[in-house]
UniProtKB/TrEMBL annotation:
The keyword Thylakoid does not apply. This is Uncharacterized protein. It comes from the Bacteria. The keyword Protein transport does not apply.
Length: 319
C-alpha cells in the first residue's frame, strides 16, 4: 500500500503539470493575446477545466502523508532551517488545499473564457506564489534535507512545457501552418528554459561541494536511475529540439504530434527520476508510478476529446 501511494505521487507530479500548465498559458494569453492562444484554445480550455479532477486525484496523497514524507512520519526529520512548524501534516494539507482550490477556480474561469486582463494578472501573481511553495512541498520535501532555490522555477516552466506538448499531441484543427510554427517556437523556448534551469541547478549544487546536495544527485545515479535521466533527456529534449530546428518540420502538424509525445515522455521520465529514487522499494514504486501515469494520461486524453465540443466556439461560448 505504501509503495502504491508513493508511485501515485510520482505519477501525479508528472500528470498534474498538464492542467496546471494549461491554465497558466490561458492566463498568459489573457494578458498578451496572440494567434497562438486562439489556435491552442480548443485543447487548453478543456484541459484547464480538468483542475477539479486534479484536486480530487490529490486525495490519496493527502490521506497517506506518513507513508510518503519522512517529516510526516516523524517530525524530527524536518530540517532545522524549516522546522516542524512549516513541515507538518496540517499546514502541508492547508497549503495544498488552498493551491488546488485556487487553481481549480481559476481553471474553470479561464476555460469558460471569462476574466479580463486584470484577473489574468492577479491570477498569475498568485500562481507564482503558490507554485513556489507547492513544488517544494510535493516533490522536494520527500527528501527534506535537500533544498534548491531554482527548483520551483524549473518545475513551473516544465508544467508549461507539458501543456504545450499536450496541445501539440492533440493538434487542434485550428492549428494551420503559421500557428503550428508559433507552437513550435513556444516549445523550443520552454524546452530550452527547462533544460537550462535543470543544468544550472546541477552545476551550482555539484560544484558547491555540499554533502547533502551531492548525496541527492548521487542517489539518482544508483540502481540504473541515471539511465532514466538519459532517456528523459534524449526523448524529451534532444530529439524534439532536433526536429523543431527545421522550419518546415516545425510547421507540420504530424511532426508536432510526435514532438508533443516525445516531450511528454521526457517530462514524465524526469519527474519519475526526481521522486522515485527517494523510496526504498524503487522498482515497485517505479512500476506503480508508470502504470498510474498511463491511466491518468489515457483518462485526460479521453476527457479532453469528449469535452472539446463544449469549448469549440471559443471564449465566452461554453455551453
Amino acid at each position: 500500500m505504501d509503495q502504491a501511494v508513493r508511485g501515485w505521487l510520482a505519477a501525479y507530479a508528472a500528470w498534474s503539470g498538464i492542467p496546471i500548465g494549461s491554465l497558466v498559458l490561458l492566463l498568459i494569453h489573457g494578458l498578451t493575446g496572440g494567434r497562438w492562444g486562439e489556435a491552442l484554445g480548443p485543447v487548453l480550455r478543456p484541459t484547464a477545466a480538468l483542475m477539479p479532477l486534479a484536486a480530487l486525484a490529490f486525495v490519496p496523497i493527502g490521506l497517506a502523508l506518513a507513508a510518503i514524507y519522512p517529516w510526516a512520519a516523524d517530525p524530527a526529520h524536518a530540517p532545522p532551517q524549516v522546522g516542524p512548524q512549516f513541515l507538518n501534516p496540517t499546514f502541508f494539507l492547508a497549503r495544498s488545499t488552498l493551491a488546488l482550490v485556487v487553481w481549480s477556480a481559476v481553471g474553470l474561469v479561464v476555460a469558460a473564457g471569462r476574466g479580463g486582463p486584470l484577473f489574468a494578472a492577479l491570477a498569475l501573481l498568485l500562481h507564482g506564489i503558490l507554485i513556489s511553495v507547492i513544488a517544494v512541498d510535493w516533490v522536494l520535501s520527500v527528501e527534506p534535507g535537500f533544498v534548491s532555490s531554482a527548483f520551483a522555477a524549473g518545475f513551473a516552466i516544465e508544467q508549461i512545457l507539458s501543456a504545450l506538448a499536450f496541445a501539440a499531441l492533440l493538434a487542434p484543427a485550428s492549428l494551420d501552418t503559421e500557428r503550428a510554427g508559433d507552437l513550435g517556437g513556444l516549445l523550443i523556448a520552454t524546452l530550452l528554459g527547462t533544460v537550462y534551469i535543470g543544468l544550472m541547478s546541477f552545476i551550482v549544487a555539484w560544484y558547491g561541494d555540499l554533502p547533502d546536495k551531492a548525496e541527492w544527485y548521487l542517489r539518482r545515479t544508483e540502481h540504473g536511475f541515471v539511465w532514466l535521466l538519459v532517456a528523459a533527456l534524449v526523448a524529451g529534449a534532444v530529439l524534439p529540439f532536433a526536429l523543431l530546428l527545421r522550419k518546415s518540420l516545425r510547421q507540420n502538424r504530424s511532426v508536432l504530434r510526435l514532438v508533443g509525445a516525445l516531450v511528454l515522455l521526457g517530462v514524465a521520465l524526469h519527474r519519475l527520476w526526481l521522486v522515485v529514487p527517494a523510496f526504498d522499494e524503487r522498482g515497485l514504486a517505479l512500476l506503480l508510478a508508470s502504470a498510474s501515469l498511463c491511466l491518468l494520461a489515457a483518462l485526460t486524453i479521453g476527457l479532453v476529446r469528449w469535452t472539446a465540443p463544449l469549448f469549440a466556439r471559443g471564449p465566452g461560448h461554453v455551453h
